[in-house]
Amino acid sequence: MIENNDIKRxxxxxxxxxxxxxxxxxxxxxxxxxxxxxxxxxxxxxxxxIHLLYCSTSQFNMxxxxxxxxxxxxxxxxxxxxxxxxxxxxxxxxxKETSIEFIKYFGFAILTTIExxxxxxxxxxxxxxxxxxxxxxxxxxxxxxKFFLDRKYVFNKHLNDEE
Length: 163
Fold this sequence. Notes:
Blueprint lengths: L1 H43 L3 H8 L6 H26 L7 H32 L4 H24 L2 H6 L1
Helix pairs in contact: 1-2, 1-3, 2-3, 4-5
């Protein structure tokens, strides 16, 4: 019974933090779009390197791409530490162990992102599901998958100690 309550608590916290990270991701991207990109491109856009890798909108919208990459990076790092110390109550703070956990965490994030994109693509393109519904379904399935992968393979120290 304790295990059942523990997994419920973990799932609730995991999904609350996931929702907060989605919101933070959006806020970072919106801030980049409305504030940082115009500021940087106006003041430093004449520098070829910055123009090419950040300010260019020909062929690809680089400010959006860079904003997206930064937002994902920041939210993955924050969520990793929230999951490690709050959701799964890991106490270990050694750099080597935390680095290995982060590599696994990031690897599963890549796999579940591919899963999300695939589900959303299938729902939107083959079943004609509205984008908002396919987005919610895909994210829900992806986060559920990631929760169980993280619980079993990334933050499993306390699970192994109890067995």
